[in-house]
Specification:
Its cofactor is heme. Belongs to the cytochrome P450 family. This protein is an alpha+beta fold and 203 residues long. 35% of the residues lie in helices and 15% in strands. It has a single domain, classed as Cytochrome p450, CATH 1.10.630. β2 and β3 form a beta hairpin. The termini are far apart.
């Protein structure tokens, strides 16, 4: 609160910043949960146990652009492309997530992709955890500015939401075998808002 200057110190500006952060934390968690829910409903028998949430985030990153930066000086790439000083640049998430050089069958959802990788490495590595970021997985951003709430979000989705759902309900999509298509709003990717999932509480 001590950092803002001039009009940015007003109560309205400070409250707006807090509301934006609150929206980002709630909206990203809920949309990722719905993406995961669609896959659970689509492949109930295959994913009866809670599966690797990381694959959902790879296939359906909330933000299609991450790591926003403003250039401090101009830069010319080897092909002649010029990025002038003061230009905002970012990294396209899906380019890395759907790259065949990074992932075998990159366009296919494989729920246990990261679980299998971890087991192949003896199960001791943490680099395949949902909260681990890298150049080929940027759903939470990357580097020192990666999402600070990523661990909390993963716990909420895996334990409190997905596990509860799988243990207590049978579920299926309204149109079996067809996963609802995502919708893009600017650089944000969201699950289809009108898709229906049928739930039946187990007795």
């Amino acid at each position: 609160m001590d950092e803002p200057k001039a009009e940015e110190q007003s109560l309205n500006h400070l409250a707006t910043r807090i509301l934006v952060m609150n929206f980002a934390s709630v909206q990203t968690t809920s949309t990722t949960f719905v993406h995961a829910l669609y896959y659970l409903a689509l492949r109930t028998n295959e994913y009866l146990e809670p599966y690797g949430l990381k694959e959902t985030l790879r296939m359906h990153p909330v933000a299609t652009l991450v790591v926003f930066r403003t250039t401090l000086k101009g830069y010319t790439f080897s092909n002649g492309t010029l990025i002038p000083k003061g230009t905002m640049v970012s990294v396209p998430t899906e380019s890395a997530h759907y790259d065949q050089n990074n992932y075998q069958n990159a366009a296919e959802f494989i729920g246990f992709r990261y679980v299998d990788k971890s087991e192949l490495e003896g199960g001791t590595s943490r680099r395949h955890d949902v909260v681990s970021t890298s150049g080929d997985f940027m759903s939470f951003g990357i580097g020192r500015h990666a999402c600070p709430g990523k661990i909390f979000a993963a716990i909420i989705m895996n334990i409190m939401m997905l596990a509860h759902l799988v243990l207590n309900y049978d579920l299926k999509l309204e149109h079996e075998g067809v996963r609802p298509k995502d919708i893009y709003i600017g650089a944000t990717r969201i699950p289809h808002p009108k898709a229906a999932i049928m739930l039946k509480k187990r007795v």
